[in-house]
Design goal:
208 residues, isomerase, 5 strands, RpiB_LacA_LacB, 2 domains, RpiB_LacA_LacB_sf, isomerase activity, five-stranded parallel beta sheet, Ribose 5-phosphate isomerase, alpha/beta
Length: 208
């Protein structure tokens, strides 16, 4: 729903105009002109409230700074996702690697996670060939909750239930469009809190 917010806001004046248009005589006779005018007014208020709330959620998400780091196996997908994230209004922090020369994924897991832990970024996207190695490395760092995701549902649950602050993807196992949909769902989803916060506190205690 949030991804269509811009279109909804653009068409909002048209929606209001439709609401303000004369009511068919048959409907006026059934509900009465006074009742219909009250209904129009309420519909306008409710619709504006809904769109305003969606706008607030969208603006919060779009203000996120997202760090991207990968080894050589994830470089191509990383560059693609950086462009896609930027095109969707997110601030991108590019942490390399800069070439296709072989490098070690733990080094880039560390670089990406340090950007999150230092406050330089709100979350990070880590990519190696399969996403497995770089996610294992990331989860060795205290305060990092890295989720290796292969679907939009994985990404949504990682944020909603686990408050993941790092997303791992496989550059050789996940196509660019699928990876893009996973990334955008991850970034657009908020943590639910509640019972999930209690469980995260238990994980935090395990890090001590």
């Amino acid at each position: 729903m949030v991804q269509h917010l811009t279109e909804l806001l653009e068409f909002f004046p048209s929606i209001v105009c439709v609401m303000a248009s004369p009511c068919p005589s048959r409907l006026i006779q059934e509900v009465g002109p006074s009742a219909f005018r009250r209904l129009q007014s309420r519909m306008r208020r409710e619709l504006f409230l809904i769109l305003s709330r969606l706008s607030q959620v969208c603006l919060v998400n779009k203000s996120m700074k997202v760090a991207f780091a990968s080894d050589h196996g994830g470089r191509g997908l990383r560059l693609f996702l950086q462009q896609r994230a930027g095109a969707n209004g997110y601030a991108v922090v590019d942490l390399g690697t800069e070439s296709d020369a072989s490098v070690d994924y733990p080094d880039f897991a560390k670089i990406g996670c340090e950007a999150v832990l230092s406050g330089r970024a709100d979350c990070c996207v880590l990519i190696c060939g399969t996403g497995i190695g770089i996610s294992i490395a990331a989860n060795k760092m205290k305060g990092i909750r890295c989720a290796l995701c292969s679907s939009e549902y994985d990404a949504e649950m990682a944020r909603k239930h686990n408050n993941a602050n790092a997303l791992a993807l496989g550059g050789r196992t996940t196509g660019p469009e699928v990876a893009s949909s996973i990334l955008l769902r991850f970034l657009a989803t908020e943590f639910e809190g509640g019972r999930h916060a209690t469980r995260l506190e238990k994980i935090k205690a395990m890090e001590e």
